[in-house]
Amino acid sequence: MNTQIKLAKRPVGMPDASTWRIEKNPIPTVGEGEFLVKVEYISLDPAMRGWMNDARSYIPPVQIDDVMRAGCVGQVEESNHPGFQKGDFVYGLGGVQQYVATNGKGWHKIDPRIAPLPVFLGTLGMPGFTAYFGLLNHGMPKAGETVLVSGAAGAVGSIVGQIAKIKGCRVIGIAGGPEKCKYLVEELGFDGAIDYKNEDVKAAVKRLCPNRIDVYFDNVGGEILDIALAQINMHGRIVICGAISQYNNTTAIKGPSNYLSLLVNRARMEGIVVFDNVKNYGTAAQEMGGWIKEGKLKSKEDVYEGIENFYETFQRLFSGKKLGKLVLKVSE
Amino acid sequence: MNTQIKLAKRPVGMPDASTWRIEKNPIPTVGEGEFLVKVEYISLDPAMRGWMNDARSYIPPVQIDDVMRAGCVGQVEESNHPGFQKGDFVYGLGGVQQYVATNGKGWHKIDPRIAPLPVFLGTLGMPGFTAYFGLLNHGMPKAGETVLVSGAAGAVGSIVGQIAKIKGCRVIGIAGGPEKCKYLVEELGFDGAIDYKNEDVKAAVKRLCPNRIDVYFDNVGGEILDIALAQINMHGRIVICGAISQYNNTTAIKGPSNYLSLLVNRARMEGIVVFDNVKNYGTAAQEMGGWIKEGKLKSKEDVYEGIENFYETFQRLFSGKKLGKLVLKVSE
């Protein structure tokens, strides 16, 4: 059987257990030009919260009664598709389920000899590519500049910070709790870390970024975006990647009151969506794979097990009870 | 004697009559390397409100007891400066006064045969250059795109809209009152105008920008910025030139709640300051002078008289009781 997690209703604010329902259905049959993937791991990303809203966005919303959308890696079990063979390892937006039949659109092969499968959901997957293209093409960091990143211990933030270090920047990360901050500095080589749960973030940013901020990579929005705006440098670049602090709001999103700092400092704030770079994913994977081999880029996955634990695992995205890329093993 | 308007105290919210004081002092003597300007006209700009705050900005604040900063045009009466001769017409940040002695830093000559003196405070001055560089270098309008501009009947906005028309764009302006809206469409050739004082701006923007907004040139901030953000197109550009709706706030500035539309639409919001383009003012003046000659660019100045009426004239910036570039004749 194929266990599936389907969207039962649109959440208002934080999703709860009744937002999804679990179903067991027959394993799909494979049509002409299709292949069947046995899903091994699914990716849990803050962006999934946005996909649940019935609003115009960069991707259509998940429909009620549809399988919840998620990135996944798995292995081809059966194929009527000329481009994919039984045994191939693949990545695609297969959804929160154990089996998926697809015509291959949006899927690509991955090589498990390069890295363990969960890494293809993190550093060598959507979050890693988000960090790579967002930072390099939009943040445009130059050696010697100061880069501040929020959600710094997360799947995107941790890669942003490490790539900025590779590019010769001073890198400060903002994360929740002493364990994550220690990880940033001691394991990932950040120049400093700010524990937003226990520190005065504004004072810490001023202290750790004495030359102000040249690039701010924002994953959180809210007050922290305002603090970064106030400290942005002349011609600074703010990359809007996400706003996890605002995703479960039941009231209006908090707009950045300090946005006129963009004017004072001739600075820029720009939004990014990783899907725009799909034709360059290969380049990114190759360069990041090289950095991983050289030990310059470290990857951390926080892997939980059991598709029936999807809701509990999803909650960790917003409670912060995880370290690195959040992944759920759904195969049995 | 030299009548001067000096900053008496820092305003909280909207300045009032007690914010400035009027003084009569002797006409300054001209030192070595200096020249004396008899000021003819001063410029009244919304930016002056920002210059009065004791805050980090793109220019130091006006100090208490200093002459109020303002752009001005006048004629050299006496010169010990090799670059300026008696009789030359000049532009500079001379301040709200009838005479100023200067070493020439930041001053340049203007040619009154090209246009009447007040035009050098508007279309061929700071507001015109703001429009020119802000729109062309940061808005980057392409023929066929939709450009929305707020404060559209003002000194900057009216030039932004006309340059966008010259570049082949569909141009919609937002202004206050039917007279200004009529002026935009009938005299300046805008494709549409929205009267924010009497219309539902959101509905009007949706109606008049059916292909959404490619470039939004923002002079006002507040709710209108949020409406524009919601309607921004893929890869749209928002130029933050000012935020007149927020300048006299006594509470926090309203941040744009819809800023995540930047992410959804991979759009950009960027701040500009005209002074960054000082070395290219000549190029702009030449091109805009050409457009004026060809009848493609219309200039409108709203000229009041008497330095003693500075405060009443300044108020018009925020009450909207003016049409075009607000100028005060201070010579007698």
Structure commentary:
Chain A has 332 residues and is an alpha/beta fold. Helix content of chain A is 25%, strand content 25%. Chain A has two domains: 2-122 and 300-329, Medium-chain alcohol dehydrogenases, catalytic domain (Quinone Oxidoreductase, Chain A, domain 1); 126-275, Rossmann fold. In chain A, helix 2 (126-139) crosses helix 3 and helix 2 packs across helix 8 (281-293). Chain A is globular and about 60 Å long. The N and C termini of chain A lie close together (11 Å). The A-B interface holds A 56-58, 221, 226, 240-243, 246, 252-273, 276 and B 56-58, 221, 226, 240-243, 246, 252-273, 276.
The residue ranges of chain A in which pLDDT falls below 50 over 5 or more consecutive positions are: none
Terminal CA distance of chain A reads 11 Å
> What would you call the quaternary organization?
homodimer
Run of helices and strands of chain A: EEEHEEEEHEHEHEHEHEHEHEHE
CATH superfamily of the largest domain in chain A: Medium-chain alcohol dehydrogenases, catalytic domain
Overall geometric form of chain A = globular
| Overall CATH class of the largest domain in chain A | Alpha Beta
Q: Which class best fits the helix and strand makeup of chain A?
A: alpha/beta
- Label the CATH architecture of the largest domain in chain A: Alpha-Beta Complex
The Rg value of chain A, from CA coordinates, equals 20 Å
Kindly identify the CATH topology of the largest domain in chain A. Answer: Quinone Oxidoreductase, Chain A, domain 1
Number of helices of chain A: 9
**Overall average residue pLDDT of chain A:** 96
Approximate helicity band of chain A? 25-40%
Strand content of chain A: 25-35%
* Count of DSSP strands of chain A: 15
Tell me the greatest interface.
A-B, 33 and 33 residues
Sheet of most strands of chain A: 7 strands, mixed
The domain count of chain A comes to 2
